[in-house]
Amino acid sequence: GMTTVVVGEDNNMQVIVDSTSEVYRMLSMELYRKQGLVTSVLESTDDDILGIESENRKGGDSLEQTSEGGLDTARKCYRAWPRSSEESCVDDELILYVMKLGETQQQQQQ
């Protein structure tokens, strides 16, 4: 987490701007990460994730083999999706810190 000694109002505003920018960067990275997860699931399924057989592949075991790859990828995505996962770019403490800074700033202006 971040700890900051607030000396004056200018310093406080700079802390708010810097912290908010960091949260924006972090959330942008998280969005990019999750877009990649979604893309990997969609590309791995070949429309078979739900076990729906495509018209041009009505035959033996090919459906099971391709579906399994899609399901495996979907399972990996499911594990990697939450903000609590190791892959996540989100620092919940930083978000709470910035929200508190905003609340404090709002109270000071009233």
Descriptive report:
- The structure is a single chain.
- Residues 56-65 have low confidence and may be disordered.
- The relative contact order is 0.16.
- It is built from three helices and no strands.
- It is rod-shaped and about 60 Å long.
- It has 110 residues and is an all-alpha fold.
Q: What class do helices, strands and sheet pairing give?
A: mainly alpha
Fraction of residues in helix? 55-70%
**Low-confidence parts, pLDDT < 50 over ≥5 residues?**
56-65
- Give the CA-based shape: rod-shaped
Per DSSP, what share of the residues sits in E-state strands of 2 or more residues?
A: under 5%
- Give the averaged pLDDT, no decimals: 79
| End-to-end Cα distance | 28 Å
Order of helices and strands: HHH
User: Helix count, per DSSP?
Assistant: 3
How would you sum up this structure in a few lines?
With 110 residues, this protein is mostly helical. It is built from three helices and no strands.
Q: Secondary-structure map with pairings?
A:
Elements: H1 9-45, H2 62-80, H3 92-109
Based on the model shown, name its key terms:
110 residues; mainly alpha; 67% helix; single chain; 3 helices
